[in-house]
Fold this sequence. Notes:
Two copies of one chain form a homodimer.
Chain A: E1 6-10, H1 17-25, E2 31-35, H2 38-46, E3 57-60, E4 63-66, H3 68-78, H4 86-108, H5 114-143, H6 155-170, H7 179-189, H8 192-197, H9 210-220
Parallel strand pairs in A: 1-2
Antiparallel strand pairs in A: 1-3, 3-4
Domain GST N-terminal (chain A): 3-83
GO biological process, one term (chain A): xenobiotic metabolic process
Family (chain A): Belongs to the GST superfamily. Alpha family.
Amino acid sequence: MAGKPKLHYFNGRGRMESIRWLLAAAGVEFEEKCMKTREDLEKLRKDGVLMFQQVPMVEIDGMKLVQTRAIFNYIADKHNLYGKDIKERALIDMYTEGIVDLNELILTRPFLPPEEQEAKLAQIKDKAKNRYFPAFEKVLKSHGQDYLVGNKLSKADILLVELLYNVEELNPGATASFPLLQALKTRISNLPTVKKFLQPGSQRNPPDDEKCREEAKIIFH
Amino acid sequence: MAGKPKLHYFNGRGRMESIRWLLAAAGVEFEEKFIETREDWDRIRKDGSLMYQQVPMVEIDGMKLVQTRAIINYIANKHNLYGKDMKERALIDMYVEGVADLNEMTIVFPVHPPGVKETKLSEIKDKAKNRYFPAFEKVLKSHGQDYLVGNKLSKADILLVELLYNVEELDPSAIASFPQLQALKTRISNLPTVKKFLQPGSQRNPPDDEKCREEAKIIFH
């Protein structure tokens, strides 16, 4: 009954990349409909398929879902990546929200005017090193298990590992003093579905760059 | 076993107010520990209670939860305000995320310097009138039911009604052309728990103002 999920976005990481990671990690095949021009966005808006006139939008199981967190949460629910009870869900959400806060700085940076990007990079490095990475290292240390919550893979592990890759792209030694984060990154990267996603030819996008910024400007402004 | 939830925040609406609304609507009594001075702030950060060194933080059922959405979701799950299945959860999340996007603008509004406030106010009015209110009016119209999702009260209804009150404080005629939203606001306001919360003497905070801004500056900077 349900076909493959269909992702509507422009051709870059932006806010859709975390969704791609989650679907890929869950072993779900998906299609992408890339917007290339202002007209493409206007058409989607006129069709009435974007509840708040924004993307990401994912067509999945008969729904046209917008809002990144609504999409993640549905995928996590559907694929048993959301813990076993409401307290585990609360921890998973608390960890995910911290990840999202740091990832937000990273994903918006390419779209800032070039002169602001340096300061933003310093902020990212500082927050990663002094606020977020210590918090997650502490969680893993506290229970010594392979996953952040309930000894089982959840959206928190997948999104944290995506974040680690993102930060390392900007700052190669970023996880050097966080052995448990390094171990988590290795473990998650070796899951067959994630391994496949990390290989060339997958639907994973290269880092957003100047070209992306220009394209996004055309479509969104 | 579980005492009352304990809310840690400064004495203002900020990011805690939505949590107060939800707890109140669910009929849950709660305590508040206000951060009033720089010393209070330094102490709570030093004692390791804040996963990311930030508030809101809510002590609930043995957890010290931070991150507004994690807290909101736990309360919603615990008090049956999150729909009956995954698809209803997805709709509820999608709606709540839209509400949160507009509410974010009203939360930070008091913090802007006077010159910037004028522009921000126009933005809030425009987004409310042209993007968010029509979207929710359309949902209610589409099924004609008393609540946004599944004919049952959820976090989406409560948080949307909070938003309507917030926008009306800035723009009194904001929902004049949205009859379904007006009806929802009336219905939710008449629920016994919400009615009580809306009366003087409840834990509801007055709008954040200049004084709030100064206090927050002292504590957080």
